[in-house]
Design goal:
Helices cover 33% and strands 24% of the residues. With 291 residues, it is of the alpha/beta class. The structure holds nicotinamide-adenine-dinucleotide.
Length: 291
């Protein structure tokens, strides 16, 4: 049994709560937090269990918890990651947060075993993350490029260069492929924090060889697409190359495809399994683990 705290109650959070309450042998819901508390009261489980509603993240610490699952916004991770890790393992659903240098110290502390608790990062739409991690650990990874292609209405961009191009594409109904932004994943995370979690995960997988400043990401709009396409080009030493193309059917305008919800749940189950295996170890140290 894993005691979970759920931070965020949008599409992913609601999906996860339903999964947790349907699997009472595996999960105990300790709390659910959402920026807008009223959204929580619409759920029948929370109406019947008001003690599970957490009104402020500053109150975390009073509960007995195994894992905190964040599915809200990168800013929540940036603000609370240290506090979360003091009390539990942390599953980060918004890994584009790691593009913020404010989290470097926190990640370094976990990577170097200075914490008891781990950071789990869901691989999401990233195919082959373990192979990439292995290449990176062996220092045999020399370049990584990742391209995401979607219908223009599937992008949620922050104000700036990429959004200006997207707005023009939407206004002029531009056909065919248009590059909205190409640059380091660190830069791209600022433009599209909700769309490029997969790219952030790739940047983490490529560490210590490459990381957020060396992996190159590109977001492309194509109004003919009814799927989310992710292309990853891996380059290693001595002419080694791998290219993967993931094509995930998704309705026009959808930010997250159905396969992503299922993949998210699989990642949580894997994180819980890893945690349960290690929880009684007296020498347990934290790690950053892609699941
Ligand atoms: N890793 C992945 O593969 C993957 C896949 C899907 C979603 N996500 C991420 O998970 C998170 C939730 O996704 P979703 O589809 O449920 O989104 P959503 O828009 O349906 O819900 C977001 C939730 O977070 C809250 N929120 C929004 N902005 C906030 C802020 N600045 N501070 C605190 N709370 C805020 C909203 O109130 C809402 O409850 C997002 O960050 C999204 O990028 C990651």
């Amino acid at each position: 049994m894993v005691r979970v705290g759920l931070v965020g109650f949008g599409k992913v959070g609601q999906f996860l709560l339903d999964e947790f309450i349907n699997q009472p042998d595996k999960f105990e819901v300790v709390f659910v937090w959402n920026r807008t508390g009223s959204a929580l009261l619409k759920h029948s489980f929370l109406q019947g269990h008001p003690e599970c509603i957490l009104d402020s993240l500053d109150k975390i610490g009073d509960q007995d918890l195994d894992i905190i699952i964040e599915v809200s916004h990168p800013s929540t991770v940036i603000k609370y990651a240290n506090k979360f890790l003091e009390v539990a393992n942390l599953f980060v659903g918004s890994p584009s947060a790691f593009a913020s240098k404010d989290l470097d110290e926190c990640v370094h502390a976990v990577q170097t075993g200075k914490t008891k608790n781990s950071i789990y990062v869901p691989v999401g739409a990233l195919w082959g993350s373990r192979d990439i991690s292995r290449l990176a650990e062996m220092k045999k990874l020399t370049a990584l490029n990742i391209t995401m292609k979607k219908h223009p209405t599937s992008y949620r961009l922050e104000e700036g260069e990429a959004k200006t191009v997207l707005d023009r594409v939407l206004r002029e109904e531009t056909e065919g492929e248009t590059i909205l932004f190409k640059g380091t994943v660190r830069e791209l995370c600022k433009h599209a924090p909700n769309n490029v979690n997969t790219m952030a995960c790739l940047a983490l997988a490529s560490s210590p060889s490459l990381g957020f400043d060396a992996v190159i990401g590109c977001i492309v709009s194509d109004p003919a697409l009814q799927s989310h396409v992710i292309e990853v080009d891996v380059v290693g030493q001595n002419g080694f190359k791998v290219q993967t193309i993931r094509d995930n059917p998704a309705g026009v305008g959808a930010v997250t495809g159905r396969a992503t919800f299922d993949s998210f749940l699989c990642s949580i189950l894997e994180a819980c399994q890893i945690f349960e295996h290690s929880k009684h170890s007296k020498t347990r140290v934290g790690k950053v683990i892609l699941v």
